[in-house]
Amino acid sequence: MTAEDLQSGHIFLLDKPLDWTSFQAVNKMKYKLKREFNLPKKFKIGHAGTLDPRATGLLIVCCGKFTKKIPEIQDAPKEYWTEIKIGVQTESYDTEKPEILHQDISHITEEQIRKALEKFVGEIDQTPPVFSAIKIEGKRAYDLARAGEEVEMKSRKTTIFYINEIKVSLPLVNFTVGCSKGTYIRSLAHDIGQELGVGAYLTQLRRTKIGEYKIEDATSDFLQNDFRFNQP
Which is nearest to 123 in space by CA: 148, 156, 81, 95? Predict the structure, then answer.
């Protein structure tokens, strides 16, 4: 790989670690690439689809002329391995905020959970969480929410293609979900809890696929301080 190769266009498959923002991961790679390949100051690089800090998994990074591919990749179907905890909620719908509204789940059965999950397969109306990167009047929703401001999120159409590999070990439920662009798995977790009548939130999320790209082909080595790209 050379500087010319990178500017002509290259795609990196990154396994984003927990508690890194997508921006931090891309910025780290940009710094390493520019330093090691003596790239110009305006070298283009960006990611195709944001992952929340509390999520891990596949983050596709495009550089050079391949940044033009970002919209196409972002539009591709996604797949996630998901873990939710039922009987309790959080304001952020994930582990960023503390647990609230604990409910008794002794009456909840695996059959009820499976039937609830089935109801979300297909086109659904979904309201994004207030702790999200969606812009409201030019400001990120999560910035407004963290500042204590009231945030009104509008519902949107999204599609859940499948929910499978379901494993129930109460209060935790694991499953794999395939979905369209713009789906918030945190909102899905919250809505499943509402369907069950006991609440739920997302405890773990790992993106495993974007279109034809798979997590098995990704690496987090690029983010290590001692990692160096192979040069001719």
Answer: 156
Q: Where do we find the tokens 């190769």?
A: 5
**What pairing do the DSSP bridges indicate for beta strands 56-63 and 200-210?**
parallel
Q: Tokens 């508690």 identify what position?
A: 19
pTM (2 d.p.): 0.88
Q: In the annotation, is 75 catalytic?
A: no
Q: List pLDDT tens digits, range 163-202.
A: 999 999 999 999 999 999 989 999 999 999 999 999 999 9
Q: Between the CA atoms of 18, 209, 51 and 183, what dihedral angle is there, to the nearest 10 degrees?
A: -130
8 Å CB contact between 220 and 18: no
CA distances (Å), origin 162, targets 121, 146, 176 = 6, 33, 8
C-alpha to C-alpha distances, 178 to 11, 45, 205, 225, nearest whole angstrom: 23, 27, 13, 34
Q: Which of 5, 15, 52, 221 is catalytic?
A: 52
